Amino acid sequence: MSESNHRPIFIVGCQRSGTTMLRLMLDSHSQISCGPETRFLEDLERIVGADWKRLSQFGYSQEEWLRRIRSFFEGIQSDYARSRGKTRWADKSPRYALHIPFLMQVFPDAQIVHVIRDGRDVAVSHRKRFGYWSSVKSSVKWPRYISAARGAGSALGEDSYHELRYDRLVADTEATLRQLLEWLGEEWEPEILDFATKKHDVPERYHRQLAARNHKAGTDGSVYASRVGTYRSELDPLVRTLFWFTSRRTLRDLGY
């Protein structure tokens, strides 16, 4: 087994960008375990950040705090992976897109996968999942997530940061996943294409939502190329205008 097979994997990106789908795809690999979102690492960042002046009085160095955070988090993930017969763990927590520098402090060997989706489609998905106000707020949230993750990624080596486009993932799923697995240092396994038939630790609402989407689309599939470009017919005029003000440069830079 190569050294890269022990490296932590973090899947990040603005919510409603396809991070859950990618999580389940990787979780279907025989060697990779990608369980529920953790989210709490961002809270622990305060130890060496906002709360450092106070906590430094314990006399431990920042390196010691980071070592203990890593030991705690890695212990949970590794035990969970082993309980499922896996040798490597991944974490899908979209909000970690805003905390990549801290992730790399704790896990210098981590591999960051940044899932990017057209922000206007993200806004449509926010409205359907969380309501209209969430769609409005996404016009500010989406460019902030993109800027934070890409900015942090630009400071990392090519073997530590990888951008994965949602539109390519759903249009050419196998080729995109083959490229990703090669980058991760893992063997290709066609079983990951059948991720929806595998057992995953997900909330029951995920299965209900998947069934509802399948019924509406008249399909039993789990990858929806039809969800690319939905903003053209489904984006509210107000939100479309907000995106023009907040995100037109980001959209242009990404080729959307």
From TrEMBL:
Per the record, a Pfam family?
Answer: Sulfotransfer_3
UniProt-listed InterPro entries = P-loop_NTPase, TPST-like
- What Gene3D superfamilies does its record include? P-loop containing nucleotide triphosphate hydrolases
Task: Identify the keywords attached in UniProt to this record, alphabetized.
Answer: Transferase
The name on file for this protein is Sulfotransferase family protein
